[in-house]
Predict the 3D structure of the following.
Amino acid sequence: MSNEVAANNSPATIQPVEIQETLDELYNKYRLLQIGQLATYIPELAKVNPELFSICIITVDGQCFKVGDFQQLFTIQSISKVFVYGLALAEHGREQVLAKVGVEPTGDAFNAIILDEKSKRPYNPMVNAGAIAITSLIKGNEPTERLSRMLSMFEGYIGHETTVDMLTFMSERTTGHRNRAMAHLMLNFGMIDEKIDEALDLYFQQCSLAINCLDLAVMAATLSNQGRNPLTHVQAVPSCYIRDILSVIYTCGMYNFAGEWAYKVGLPAKSGVSGGLLIVVPGQMGIGIFSPLLDERGNSVRGVKVSEELSQRFGLHLFDCKKRDVG
Ligand code: DON
């Protein structure tokens, strides 16, 4: 194919005005969609306003697009698993982390009490069992030191200090019996060390981190930008681990919807039961969506719809032959 033909066939770059117009349009379209359920198994999450909705995009060169309730705080929940996995990789290296937690999608629910038959490892770091095992690896002499390391790590991605929402933390801590059962099972097989109550507390704290939708987009954009926050230019995680993080969330980030997600949207992503959705467009932008009504797999209903449309309209699917770049 000659260069001329290739140039004629190449789709136009995505212009900033088109991004903001698309966000406004999708916001107005899906604001009317009010189906799904709030997560009720964590009592504190059942109190959230189900109508909240926001979509934010940050590009790797720091352009910012936002619509809706983007300043509304919510707890990060399972999306935290992505970043704590990065911290564990940075602290221990790929081989040691892989010895404790696999990278295989399960096709099961996120809270399934299941370990790999042969290795006794949790299947991957994005299901609860794997995430608890990963959290148990975080270094520090005292629980406060480990929490402080974790908060500093999150600050690198977000660009400002964050806090743990105490009501959600206590709510999870008092009702998280399945997570306790998983921790005991892993202790039984020697996959995590004996301080399981400390590991569980840290896991509940990471899930209860309060962020807003704009923070979520900056975090996604930092992953898109090889681990460097595009607004503060802080390197939040060594760039050599971005490959690991993105492969795992591409295959395991949307739980038992991961295959359909990869097929339709085609981007690394992670959801959480508070209604957050983080999407990484490698080398281009980070997308954050927040809408608390969930489908039966625990993914945000509006979040999935908006992502499908954004991917299709902007040609973002990783394997799309008509991929477009941000202008
Ligand atoms: O452990 C739990 O159940 C919650 N703290 C996190 C779950 C979560 O967000 C799963 N995501 N869809």
Observations:
- The chain has one domain: 3-314.
- Confidence is low (pLDDT under 50) at residues 1-9.
- Residues 143-158 form the longest helix (16 residues).
